Amino acid sequence: MSPPPKVAIIGAGPGGLTLARLLQQHSIPVTIYEAETSRQARNQGGTLDLHPRAGQLALKEAGLLPEFLKHARPEGEASKIMKYDGRVLWDDNVLPPWRPTAEGEQERPEIDRVVLRDILLDSLLPGTIQWGKKLLGVQEDEKIKGKYNLSFADGSMEMGVDLLVGADGAWSKVRPLVTPEKPFYAGITAIELWALDVDKTNPWLGKFVGQGSMFMFDEGRALMCQRQGSGAVRSYAAIKRPENWAEECGIDWEGPDARERLVNEYFADCGADLQRVILESKDVLIPRKCWMLPVGISWKTRPGVTLLGDAAHLMTPFAGVGVNVAMADALELAKALIARKDSVTAKLLSDSKNITIALEAYEKSMLKRAEENATKTMHGLKGHFSATGSEERAGKIQKGYDMMMAKKAEKEKGF
């Protein structure tokens, strides 16, 4: 009996971890190579919502949905929408819970990224992840086509990989094997701001943002805040500006007056409370440029290598679908590989042939889904930075609320 194919996943984000869990459930050996030195190496970011037919479905197939629901925060779905002048256009925090449910829970409950990652990490077999393995390069084996040799920054190498999965994010080292496309600047720079433990240090801020998210959308600018399960509030003061704006605008982002200058120069006509969110988020400040890959990116399947998540279809965060799409990718790829592994036909063919057939099926579906979500994200980018963005978002929520109330009224009448 020939040994099982060697599967290497680059990157221990939600997509790569989900894929590894799903493959291990079907006795397919896999190794994840992660550049970070440990799971505590860096802040994993803020909170995200998992959709029933994407992230939640992947967790269900992985046997992890109960653990997710144990840590998820349905109240995090609450939205507060504001106009730049401080008017509140919508506020879920003053309403009873009304959003649609799935399996008895809120449809898209929030979970902190670090908690989701811990759930996935703890589900894997010991030794699955090799930490501190920053990928430097990939070479196809000179003698055996479809096998790959990996070189890492620590001087080590991994030879003869049968399936290489790039789950290594925006600046993927695996992507050049299948496409020359590179991320480009999406026209938005967001200043990430944190206020930690707000219930103790700044109760006003916690109450103002509410249980979930607070948004202000306006022409060329936006303010987006999220309540974290850790008790922190993470905010983004985002501005539509050229790529070098953060370096050339004259604001020293490490200086003591950075927040004041940001408010005075770009949010001076905003309501006092919106300004206060920026000024009082004093714990962390990080300029972040938004990057993306072309909408509709595609490539011809290359034997033995594929991509998922941001490595395959980097999008801006303005539709909130990135992690969900990555986890849907992982589920689809796992199903394609498992189907070929278990089929009668597969047992008559070589591993490399089966892997290629699986990748062709996966990439056809994945790239179609990616284009659909990237299109949605582009629409979100335009709406978030338009003069009527807040009204449009509030109107959409109002429409959903009215529909739910109508259904509730019909049910109470016995229809």
3D architecture notes:
This protein is of the alpha/beta class and 415 residues long. The protein has 13 helices and 19 strands. It has two domains: 7-73 and 109-183 and 294-384, FAD/NAD(P)-binding domain, CATH 3.50.50; 81-104 and 184-291 and 385-415, 2-Layer Sandwich (D-Amino Acid Oxidase, Chain A, domain 2), CATH 3.30.9. The chain has a seven-stranded mixed sheet, with helices on both faces. Strands 9-2-1-13-19 form a five-stranded parallel sheet. A three-stranded antiparallel sheet has the order 10-11-12, with no helix packed on it. Helix 2 (55-61) packs parallel to helix 11 (322-342) and helix 11 runs antiparallel to helix 12. The longest helix is centred in the C-terminal third of the chain and has 34 residues, at 351-384. It is globular, with a radius of gyration of 23 Å. The model has no long low-confidence stretch (mean pLDDT 93).
CATH second-level architecture of the largest domain: 3-Layer(bba) Sandwich
Structural classification: alpha/beta
Task: Give the tally of structural domains.
Answer: 2
Describe the global form.
globular
Major sheet description: 7 strands, mixed
Q: Would you summarize the structure shown here?
A:
By secondary structure, this protein is α/β, with parallel strands linked by helices.
Helix and strand arrangement:
Blueprint: E1 7-10, H1 14-25, E2 31-33, E3 47-49, H2 55-61, H3 65-71, E4 79-82, E5 88-91, E6 101-102, E7 105-106, E8 110-112, H4 113-122, E9 129-130, E10 135-140, E11 148-152, E12 157-161, E13 163-166, E14 184-195, H5 198-201, H6 203-209, E15 213-218, E16 221-227, E17 233-240, H7 245-248, H8 258-266, H9 272-279, E18 284-292, E19 305-307, H10 310-313, H11 322-342, H12 351-384, H13 389-413
Parallel strand pairs: 1-2, 1-13, 2-9, 4-15, 13-19
Antiparallel strand pairs: 3-8, 4-5, 6-7, 10-11, 11-12, 14-17, 14-18, 15-16, 16-17
Helix pairs in contact: 1-4, 1-11, 2-11, 11-12
